[in-house]
UniProtKB/TrEMBL annotation:
<comment type="similarity">
    <text>Belongs to the IAA-amido conjugating enzyme family.</text>
</comment>
<protein>
    <submittedName>
        <fullName>Putative indole-3-acetic acid-amido synthetase GH3.1</fullName>
    </submittedName>
</protein>
<dbReference type="Pfam" id="PF23572">
    <property type="entry name" value="GH3_C"/>
</dbReference>
<dbReference type="InterPro" id="IPR004993">
    <property type="entry name" value="GH3"/>
</dbReference>
<dbReference type="GO" id="GO:0016881">
    <property type="term" value="F:acid-amino acid ligase activity"/>
</dbReference>
<feature type="domain" description="GH3 C-terminal">
    <location>
        <begin position="451"/>
        <end position="569"/>
    </location>
</feature>
<dbReference type="InterPro" id="IPR055378">
    <property type="entry name" value="GH3_C"/>
</dbReference>
<dbReference type="Pfam" id="PF03321">
    <property type="entry name" value="GH3"/>
</dbReference>
<dbReference type="InterPro" id="IPR055377">
    <property type="entry name" value="GH3_M"/>
</dbReference>
<keyword id="KW-0436">Ligase</keyword>
<dbReference type="GO" id="GO:0005737">
    <property type="term" value="C:cytoplasm"/>
</dbReference>
<feature type="domain" description="GH3 middle">
    <location>
        <begin position="358"/>
        <end position="435"/>
    </location>
</feature>
<dbReference type="Pfam" id="PF23571">
    <property type="entry name" value="GH3_M"/>
</dbReference>
Length: 598
């Protein structure tokens, strides 16, 4: 029930006193966006004034925006790499941040094939927790009664390594779930999970998923919302259920735990929970043995009000599949965040995915926006495009996000393109347009054009003995299968038809491509099982010429036509698929270990 109007919020009546405080905080931050930004920049520059990086640009104690903008360059990860390498090797002097770097967060964005290492400091955990604490108060405005049940969230930790200097390197969510902030979070009736911490914190993905699914099935009627961080993760859970429901049903029937669960913490905690439930086992068996899984989520978890998953950006490709399995449940995208910094939240989380806008919270970092003009890309140098402050962006325009963080990134280009859709008070709201330079993505992997090109070059070495070359290629992220997989279309020039490439050689080409792709891709294949084997589809000679004819018939200029290196337009896919002469899959897993190659 809503609390009395004395603490009502412009966002709507809060569900409880705690929510009122959170909504009040959002109001304060967004009303004073510009002043908060000014204060945040001054704080960052003041505390880090003696760092090697800032001293190099001679701010001489200035903390104002004008001096900052005139002295500090806009940079990318590659510019920071030498400093980051020194920190990774054990240099504890204040290079980027006055506060000690507590660990590195390994981004899904890569540099030279390896995850980028983002420095972070201990207090950033508080900022992340603060942003998380705002999500349910906003959701409670739109979906009442979430305190009457639980959330089934599939959350995972991933492997971590240490840098040569001894700092931990791990993904931001692994860092967060393993922190005391998460593990000892206070009880909040609106935010109770079916998954025990022990299951979330197990690094073995099978054991973690199995026990989270088992708990979710046991409490199926209590589940009011179902989620994962990204849409691909939730679909992976559904696939897991398809593959493992028999064992899950057996365990439910007997009150036992699958032998493959060996993690002592999970075993202990599940021993307290598990009890035989033959009725539930019959239900699971009946539902899961049906051939048709349409609407399975709503059948198994009938009280689910919405799916909590990110379906913006690259994840939009999963919306039709989620709709299929859920029978069209609402999809809520609640937040926008990265390893570098948590940015903001969606103040209208039950809106349609195509209408999602994120409100950047001005207390999280100092934000600048580089105007992005796609049509003049390359013609207008970055240096002549003036960066705009958070409160000064214009509705309808596209910008690239540039951040200055407490942890020591200064005017750092995140690589995300955002479009301003409106304002909440004086804080702008952004539609996530895309990440720059991403051609293919299934899960958190991001493959750019240069990486794909290199992978093709490496694979084609194997065709030499057949005197065969690849004349044209394009690619496609096939998400109709779970997990999704990369499809590469090849048109070959076979110079000696008597010696055309063998089936085995083309299969090995698939694997050779996978070996060349970046470590996030290979981790998805090997450790997370979130990406399926890469497929090469060989198409008939002349197919790419037909593709060009098609593009020209639709208005492309013949002089400027370039083969698209990634396709997703249905008529083009249909054309390509109708010309396929053979399809080949990677016969093995590529190499991957948590250790970095460099
Ligand atoms: P990572 O550095 O691996 O944590 O990835 C962060 C990136 O994921 C961001 O810079 C975005 O490109 C993407 N991302 C994060 N949240 C969202 C979202 N809500 N919608 C679309 N893309 C997102």
């Amino acid at each position: 029930m809503a609390v009395d109007s004395a603490i009502s919020s412009p966002l709507g009546p809060p569900a409880c006193e705690k929510d009122a405080k959170a909504l009040q905080f959002i109001e304060e931050m967004t009303r004073n966006a510009d002043a908060v930004q000014e204060r945040v920049l001054a704080e960052i520059l003041c505390r880090n004034a003696q760092t090697e990086y800032l001293k190099r640009f001679e701010l001489k104690g200035a903390t104002d925006r004008e001096t900052f903008k005139s002295r500090i360059p806009i940079i990318t990860y590659e510019d920071l790499q030498p400093a980051i390498q020194r920190i990774a090797n054990g240099d504890r002097s204040p290079i980027l941040s006055a506060h000690p770097i507590s660990e590195f967060l390994t981004s899904s964005g890569t540099s030279a094939g390896e995850r980028k290492l983002m420095p972070t400091i201990q207090e950033e955990l508080n900022r992340r927790q603060l942003l998380y604490s705002l999500l349910m108060p906003v959701m409670n405005l739109y979906v009442p009664g979430l305190d009457k049940g639980k959330g089934l969230y599939f959350l995972f930790v991933k492997s971590e390594t240490r840098t040569p200097g001894g700092l931990l390197a791990r993904p931001v969510l692994t860092s967060y779930y393993k922190s005391e902030h998460f593990k000892t979070r206070p009880y909040d009736p609106h935010n109770v999970y079916t998954s025990p911490n022990e299951a979330i914190l197990c690094a073995d993905s099978f054991q973690s998923m199995y026990s989270q699914m088992l708990c979710g099935l046991r409490e199926r009627k209590q589940v009011l919302r179902l989620g994962a961080v990204f849409a691909s993760g939730l679909l992976r859970a559904i696939r897991f259920l398809q593959l493992n429901w028999t064992q899950l049903a057996n365990d439910i029937r007997a009150g036992t735990l699958n032998q493959r669960i060996t993690d002592p913490a999970i075993k202990d905690c599940m021993a307290q929970i598990l009890k035989p439930d033959p009725e539930l086992a019959d239900f699971v068996t009946e539902e899961c043995s049906k051939d048709n899984w349409e609407g399975i989520i709503s059948r198994i978890w009938p009280n689910t009000k919405y799916l909590d998953v990110i379906v913006t950006g690259a994840m939009a490709q999963y919306i039709p599949t989620l709709d299929y399995y859920s029978g069209g449940l609402p999809l809520a995208c609640t937040m926008y965040a990265s390893s570098e910094c948590y940015f903001g939240l969606n103040l209208n989380p039950m809106c349609k995915p195509s209408e999602v806008s994120y409100t950047i919270m001005p207390n999280m970092a100092y934000f600048e926006f580089l105007p992005h003009e796609p049509n003049s890309a390359g013609l207008v140098p970055d240096s002549t495009r003036k960066l705009v402050d958070l409160a000064d962006v214009e509705v309808g325009k596209d910008y690239e996000l540039v951040i200055t963080t407490y942890a020591g990134l200064y005017r750092y280009r995140v690589g995300d393109i955002l479009r301003v859709t409106g304002f909440h008070n004086s804080a702008p709201q952004f539609h996530f347009v895309r990440r720059k330079n991403v051609l293919l993505s299934i899960d958190s992997d991001k493959t750019d054009e240069a990486e794909l090109q290199k992978a093709i070059e490496n694979a084609t070495q194997l065709l030499r003995e057949f005197n065969t070359s690849v004349v044209e290629y394009t690619s496609y992220a096939d998400t109709k299968t779970i997990p999704g997989h990369y499809v590469i279309y090849w048109e070959l020039l076979v110079k000696d038809p008597e010696n055309s490439p063998s089936e085995d050689a083309l299969n090995r080409c698939c694997l050779a491509m996978e070996e060349s792709l970046n470590s996030v891709y290979r981790q998805g294949r090997v450790a997370d099982n979130s990406i399926g084997p890469l497929e090469i589809r060989v198409v008939k000679n002349g197919t790419f010429e037909e593709l060009m004819d098609y593009a020209i018939s639709r208005g492309a200029s013949i002089n400027q036509y370039k083969v698209p290196r990634c396709v997703n337009f249905t008529p083009i896919m249909e054309l390509l698929d109708s010309r396929v002469v053979s399809a080949h899959f990677s016969p093995a897993l590529p190499h991957w270990t948590p250790e970095r190659r460099r």
